[in-house]
Amino acid sequence: MPLICFASPKGGVGKTTLAANVADALRRSGQRVLALDLDPQNALRLHFGLPLQDNEGFAHELARRPDWRNAVRETPSGVILLPHGAVDIIGALDLATALEREPELLAAPLRAILADPDLMVVADMPPGASRALTLVAPHAAMIVAVLLADAGSAALVPEIESGRFLGAGSMTALFAGRLRVALNQLEPESRLSAAAAESVARRFGPRLLGAIRRDVAVAEALASQRLLLDLAPGSLAAQDLAALVRGIAAARPAMPEIAAAGWAGR
Fold it and tell me: Which residues lie in coiled coils (predicted)?
């Protein structure tokens, strides 16, 4: 089933929050969804209500060749979760080295997960170029690059247009064709934010899936470890999330069941 990756040339753009809430929105459309956390920050779990002290996961154990099925968590939202697991900076570097040496540590379980024809996978990738992203990109139906709607976005546009943040290699240009863009924390009343959004829209055209307005409901949802559509289904950000999911459906004609599903308000 299709794999949708959420990535970004830099951290701090709300990538994980967006991945979690898109996974939830897709699940509400009737999909079976697995949320896969490959970001060493191990934050995806927080959106699905896992306790802060729960540090177990899948990706941080890859060097030991764990069975991914043993790490699966059923969440109240109905989204299946594979948390990353807690890891310090040394552990993250060791994992990257292990994947460099033996790519099958990640590639093999990913193929097994994607072999389920009824499962949609939403993966939260590490920010910037990473070995994990290089290995996952060939399997992805879509790679959603998340940008903030601010002046700094303009400096990152070349990284996204070229696909350089996907990693080095001759296949980078091919994977770049699967790239789409989502803007986060848009402030329409701010001239600077609006101008940045217009600039990104001009550069990417139909590859821009949508924009999420800055909304306190998003922060409140994270603080309470709840998903946006549970806490504030009528919020501005929830409306934007619906439009973003429709944009994903429109960009993926191979997923007509998403395009046909009217999840908003469920």
Answer: none
